[in-house]
Design goal:
alpha+beta, Butyryl-CoA Dehydrogenase, subunit A, domain 2, four-stranded antiparallel beta sheet, globular, binds flavin-adenine dinucleotide
Length: 309
């Protein structure tokens, strides 16, 4: 039986191995061509990492925030798009797993653990932006099912994932965060219309895009948790997992960018001085000492948050 920290190191090593051997080879094409990183995500699925937050009794890894931070950071070092897709899949998986019914376990969590299902989050909206706990998308109950109407922005893996966790409120409750409610919507449900890709700098392959929902009908059983109890989800699940996933993607990118900058400064020398750029104080303060420590400090802060969570 591995200790908790040995388990985290094992997961880090698996992620680093896939990042180096699969993601790195594809990342340029993924970004230049805006190509959704299917091969990298397949490798993560085959290694069992897509089930990071699925409970062990359902075949997953049963892990929490620290594992999310460590794995996502390793992926972000080599391919920011794959890291973002993995991060949003993981947050949505955690939302699905938190109060899953046995039907949700069979339809979503076991397939996720088996590497056969990718999910994502559809919370943010163009109108309320980062205040994602105040969605304007509405739901109404009709004949035992639920109808969803509204618009989402930045749905990562949009159009590629097998399911989406969608937030909505009942009509007239737009300003009441206590009515925040989540449903899981399966891909290709009639009434879903994908909007053009967001062309994010260095992240063109993550397929973050808008989603228009026009009378999208889902079974009442696709409700996650209980109707209206979900401000609890915001603070206990969505916000911590979302923030750690996002931060870890960008820490991974920053670490990689800094390493490349240092290599470049140490490798570039002028013929007329014979000295490398790393000897120029304005480019490389304190011989790089402070610079070297910066991403580690930021990474340590994210790790502390993940452990605290
Ligand atoms: C690559 C990428 C992938 C994403 N994937 C997903 C996804 O899969 N699912 C999803 O639901 N969302 C996703 N998002 C959306 C994201 O998390 C935010 O909801 C979105 O970026 C908000 O953008 P905005 O420009 O509307 O922010 P705005 O609301 O306009 O905010 C702009 C800035 O102002 C700050 N700000 C706003 N209000 C306040 C305040 N009261 N006090 C202090 N600061 C404030 C914000 O923190 C932000 O820095 C993704 C975003 C990106 C960039």
């Amino acid at each position: 039986m591995l200790t908790a920290s040995a388990t985290i190191e094992r997961l880090r090593n698996i992620a680093a191995d896939i990042a180096t051997n699969v993601l790195a080879a594809d990342s340029e094409k993924v970004d230049l061509e805006g190509h959704w990183p299917e091969r990298g995500l397949r490798a993560l699925a085959d290694a069992g990492l897509m089930g990071l937050h699925v409970p062990e009794h359902l075949g997953g890894q049963g892990q929490g925030l620290l594992a999310l931070s460590v794995v996502t950071e390793e992926l972000g070092r080599q391919c920011s798009s794959t890291a973002m897709c993995f991060g949003m899949h993981s947050v949505a998986t955690k939302v699905l797993a938190t109060k899953a019914s046995s039907d949700h376990e069979d339809r979503f969590l076991r397939p996720i653990a088996q590497g056969q299902h990718i999910t994502s989050l559809a919370l943010s909206e163009p109108g309320t932006g980062s205040h994602f706990f105040l969605p304007r998308t509405q739901f109404a109950t009709e004949d035992g099912s639920v109808l969803l109407d509204g618009q989402k922005s930045f749905v990562t893996s949009g159009g590629h994932a097998d399911s989406y966790v969608v937030s909505a409120v009942p009509p007239g409750s737009e300003m009441d965060p206590g009515t925040f409610t989540c449903f899981v919507v399966e891909k290709n449900t009639p009434g879903m219309e994908w909007l053009p890709d967001w062309e994010g700098f260095g992240m063109r392959g993550n397929s973050s895009r808008g989603l228009h929902l026009d009378k999208v009908r889902v079974p009442q059983g696709n409700l996650l948790g209980s109707e209206g109890d979900q401000i609890w989800y915001v603070f206990e699940v969505v916000a911590p997992y979302f923030i750690i996933a996002m931060s870890s993607v960008y820490i991974g990118i920053a670490q990689s960018a800094l390493e490349q900058t240092i290599t470049s400064l140490k490798g570039r020398s002028h013929v007329h001085t014979g000295e490398t750029l790393s000897t120029v104080p304005v480019l490389f303060p304190s011989g790089g000492g402070d610079v070297d420590r910066n991403p580690e400090n930021a990474a340590a802060r994210v790790t502390r948050c993940a452990i605290g969570g």
